[in-house]
Amino acid sequence: MDIFVKPTSENPSRGILKLGNKTYPCALGKGGISFEKQEGDHKSPVGKFGLRSVYYRYDKLDKPIYSQVPMMALLKEDGWCDDPNDAAYNKAVMLPYHASAEELWRDDDLYDILVVLGYNDNPPVTGKGSAIFMHVACDLEDHEFKGTEGCVSLKKDDLLELLPKLTTDTHLEISA
């Protein structure tokens, strides 16, 4: 069963994620969506992407989680290379790393659970964007989600509800 994501008409950084008959509010890139994603444009890429892996913070979960997508506990040294000029561009790396890389072990809750989307990874194209994940949303005081750097984000409870339904055959499709 695939996941479908569409932006809402009133705010391009907000969306609706649908899996089966259930819908969930989600956040998209601060700049909305793009058919021509570029590194640093704050837009979520339009397209259909496989689910590569799930990373999780074992120290921030109340109970065990399950998914048929390969799962890995995050380590404090886990990172993701976002340097378009590096050979490991858009790949997991161990920190410290010699090029620019995002820390996956964060003080906030955003990466307590993250699903790596198969965007720009086979092979990565320089400058087309990196670190496109489905992860925990930043919930603002008015219960609105803050736009992402280009990812799809959901409430933590919603993401936990989705995980057991995901398989290696599941795709996430972002459409206009």
* CATH architectural category: Beta Barrel
* Total domain modules: 1
Radius of gyration: 15 Å
Identify the CATH homologous superfamily: L,D-transpeptidase catalytic domain-like
Question: What general form does the structure show?
Answer: globular
N- to C-terminal distance:
20 Å
Structural class: mainly beta
- State the helical fraction: under 10%
Task: Give the overall pLDDT as a whole number.
Answer: 96
Unreliable stretches covering 5 or more consecutive residues: none
How many strands appear in the DSSP assignment? Answer: 14
The CATH topology corresponds to L,D-transpeptidase catalytic domain-like
CATH class: Mainly Beta
Largest sheet, described in full?
9 strands, mixed
| SSE order, one letter for each helix or strand | EEEEEEEEEEEEEHE
Total DSSP helices: 1
Strand content: 25-35%
Descriptive account of the structure:
The chain has one helix spanning 156-162, and strands at residues 3-7, 14-19, 22-27, 33-34, 44-45, 47-56, 71-73, 78-81, 92-94, 101-103, 113-117, 133-136, 152-154, 171-174. The chain is mainly β. The two termini are 20 Å apart. It has a single domain (3-174), classed as Beta Barrel (L,D-transpeptidase catalytic domain-like), CATH 2.40.440. The mean pLDDT is 96. The chain is globular. The strands form three sheets. Strands 1, 2, 3, 6, 7, 11, 12, 13 and 14 form a nine-stranded mixed sheet that branches. A hairpin with a 2-residue loop joins strand 2 and strand 3 (22-27). Helices cover 4% and strands 34% of the residues.
